[in-house]
Specification:
Strand content: 15-25%
Shape: globular
Structural class: alpha/beta
Number of strands: 8
Low-confidence stretches: 33-42
Helix content: 25-40%
Number of helices: 6
Mean pLDDT: 79
Length: 229
């Protein structure tokens, strides 16, 4: 009988590097909102992907703000650190060809956790000259001994199969926690509220705070059309 493998995977990185987009791409379903505004993820979105005897439980953490004095950012940092502690695999997301001080601070932070860390360079579709990636990969390799460094594009899905394969190979041996057909541990009210909040943030920009909250009173499914109150 085949052994079962199951583990928690946290997706971390500074704000606006594409963590939510990566999660949505992996699950092939929109479960986390995306916006150019930082810190749009206020909840720890949980998505499950099961492939035969491998079950991956993904957690999308809020963007980490090292040394931030703002109360909300302190809360988000504690939330992110707690999720990392409970994870079996960490996916660190960087973007394009730049690693800055905040990226390095996050790398230093996660070195304290005895976890398998995969570095994902996102948004490679925005790089015209791919030859520039080689010295950048060398630079990242000098920062930490990652399990692997992968190139990825949430937009084109380039690197998706490699990422899922690498995660699968590093899952611990465990019984599956969720039914194989289970996709997301949230109800429709949550999904709809997040989608509406995303549109508010995208359409209104600087005119409204990005910590906007949307509450759904009820949802009614009438002939394949949802009425949301």
């Amino acid at each position: 009988m085949d052994k079962n493998y199951c583990g928690y995977i946290s997706i971390i990185g500074k704000p606006n590097v594409g963590k939510s987009s990566i999660l949505n791409t992996i699950l092939d379903k929109k479960v986390s909102i995306t916006s150019r505004k930082s810190q749009t993820t206020r909840n720890n979105i949980l998505g499950i992907k099961t492939i035969k005897n491998k079950q991956m439980i993904f957690i999308d953490t809020p963007g980490m703000h090292i040394k931030s004095k703002k109360t909300m950012n302190k809360i988000l940092n504690k939330s992110a650190e707690s999720i990392i502690e409970d994870s079996d695999i960490i996916i660190l997301v960087l973007q394009r060809l730049k690693i800055d001080m905040l990226d390095r601070q996050i790398i230093e932070k996660i070195k304290n956790f005895d976890k398998k860390i995969i570095c994902v360079i996102n948004k490679i579709d925005q790089i015209d000259n791919k030859n520039k990636l080689l010295p950048f990969i060398d630079e990242i390799s000098n920062e930490h001994s990652f399990k692997d460094i992968l190139l990825f594009s949430a937009k084109t899905k380039d690197g998706l199969e490699n990422l899922i394969s690498l995660i699968s190979k590093n899952l611990p041996e465990n019984n599956h926690i969720y039914d194989e057909n289970f996709n997301i541990q949230k109800d429709n009210k949550f999904i709809f509220s997040e989608l509406i909040r995303e549109k508010i943030i995208r359409k209104l920009g600087d005119e409204i705070p990005y910590d906007t909250y949307v509450e759904i009173d009820k949802c009614e499914n009438k002939k394949d059309i949802y009425q949301i109150y």
